Amino acid sequence: MDSIPANRRLWNRISSAYQHEHDPQIGAAPRLWGMYSIPDAHLHALGDVTGKRVLELGCGAGQWSRALAAEGAHVVGIDLSEAQLAAAVREMGAARYPLVQGAAEQLPFAADSFDLVFCDFGGLSWAPPHLAVPQAARILRPGGRLVFNVASPWFEACYDEAASRVTTTLQQDYFGLNTIAEGDGATSYQLTYGDWVRVLRGAGLIIDDLIEPRPEPATPNGYNETDPPDWARHWPAELLWVTHKP
Ligand SMILES: C[S@@+](CC[C@H](N)C(=O)[O-])C[C@H]1O[C@@H](n2cnc3c(N)ncnc32)[C@H](O)[C@@H]1O
């Protein structure tokens, strides 16, 4: 299915409210991963990016991109939504970096262009992974890394649509997650653990780690209500894949 037009419309529509609500958390400090703002210094997913060619896939307002640019990376941010890219322009710091409008499933870059492709709930949550992962692998140089954070199947399977919160009851079929309707045709994507492994290996990538970020006690979830509030202390809310191209 082609979710590009509907996802673009969705993010153009919600960008302003989304940034108003979430930018203070996402951009509170450099290199914060996911729903619980866990510092990369605790997870060690990205490593040193100085001098590296880095692509943020679905960069949104570029909170990550501007932090890595300030560290000396040669960053490019790509996003589908012009409203999100406008937010990235507004929030760009002293270290300027280029922004590109485009889709993770149709990346407009040559092969071997980047040392690191990464995202945090970006293009690999909002584009079909069986299309976006091979695209990311294509534009990496040999030895380059694809690192990305997505919601876990546990989180999605326990999400109670009617109550708008994550619970301790399985609400949806694990094998039926696949696509998640976000309204008006917009779609996000979720694979089973096995399908992620197959998609990554099928694109020729080596899986180096699967980090399951676990928040410190009493860390609030800035996006979703969970019941109990410390749900993510008990089950993994996110999957942070660390892979490289041989
Ligand atoms: C949740 S934001 C991720 C950005 C940032 N890390 C954040 O948490 O706000 C998701 C971003 O993915 C972008 N997006 C949606 N579909 C996309 C696609 N097919 N290709 C690239 N970006 C896409 C949206 O416009 C949005 O900026």
Automatic annotation (TrEMBL):
InterPro entries: Methyltransf_11, SAM-dependent_MTases_sf. Residues 55-148 form the Methyltransferase type domain. Pfam families: Methyltransf_11. The keyword Amino-acid biosynthesis does not apply. Signal peptide: none annotated. CDD domains: AdoMet_MTases (cd02440). Transmembrane segments: none annotated. GO terms for molecular function: S-adenosylmethionine-dependent methyltransferase activity. It comes from the Bacteria. Keywords: Methyltransferase, Transferase. SUPFAM superfamilies: S-adenosyl-L-methionine-dependent methyltransferases (SSF53335). GO terms for biological process: methylation. This is Methyltransferase domain-containing protein. It comes from Streptomyces boluensis.
